[in-house]
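Page 47, continued from p. 46.
Same chain as before, 386 aa.
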Amino acid sequence: MTLGRPAPPPLGKPLSLQQEQMAHAASDRQTPRSGMNTALAYGVEAPGSGLVPLQVERREPDAHDVEIAIAFCGLCHSDVHTVRGEWREIDYPLVPGHEIVGRVTAIGQDVTLHAIGDLVGVGCMVDSCRDCTSCDEGLEQYCEKGAVGTYGARDRRHGGEVTQGGYATSVVVDENFVLRMPPELDPAAAAPLLCAGITTYSPMRYFGVEAGDSVGVVGLGGLGHMAVKLAKAMGASVTVFTSSADKADSARALGADHVVVTGDDEALAAARRSVDLIIDTVSAAHDLAPFLRTIRRDGALIQLGVPPEPMPPVPVNLLMRHRIAYGASNIGGIAETQEMLDFCAEYGITADVELVRAPDLNLAYDRMVAGDVAYRFVLDIASLND
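Result:
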């Protein structure tokens, strides 16, 4: 592993907020505009409403905007937390969804990165300040002023309107935050790459995972199954840590070389000092001590799950004893996400998915909470027209 491997260079320096506003004003003077378009959607309209049919207004494409007819949108566990008000208060109505795949149907007059008919994707963010150090370095997810989320965020460039996500028939996004989807990938199965894929890829890329390294994956859900596939493609030996012995065969089918059932003290002891990097995908509070003991000197444990309750204290002595790092990681920048998509195309990696129709979304949410999915749900947007 090579700690701190830099992110790929930004895809291009986007316009600043002031430049963007000036371009919008010039475009408005030059081109008659009808203002807004209506998209069919599913979202929440009030506390406790569950997901229901809605209509949302999408702006006409500005000079640097891309309009996308959405074909598929992945269901992320963060959608469930947000919709159910478990993380923060919601501005209603709200349409979730940040794993969007579709076709470009219209472009602004100055768009150069995408063309009508292109297969494209939109992930967890649709804008950032574009001027801070993180944005300059292609790390928009760490924007000093806060990246603009694909849903439930205030869009600073468009009057502070609340962004609405991908459980909808269309979306309009700045070209700099739209990804090129490789044609080799199945669009439905590739949708979760835009969140689960990049979230697990980014820390492994940062630590320079390569052939000869050993990667541990805690949890075998939507994130965990992607971590296994990506680590194997990078040439690493993969150990899956799971609380369920029933998942051992599934882990090996995904490519895991070793499976450790966390309730088996002998198996944990045998795994001591056997891995270089652990990707922890569990979103419930859990004790990290057993996993820290499996990490070699100068290794690291990276937390990706966000438990709703506090984690048990991290035993500092276990970190100090072998100079182990404990940290966390947040999705990935636009350039890095494109790199991840191209990597997945090269190695034939997609998520294992189950398609969901819009009327079944609430049932799918219940199944996600119960862990009854192998491994990601994807909404078939065509079903909104039903």
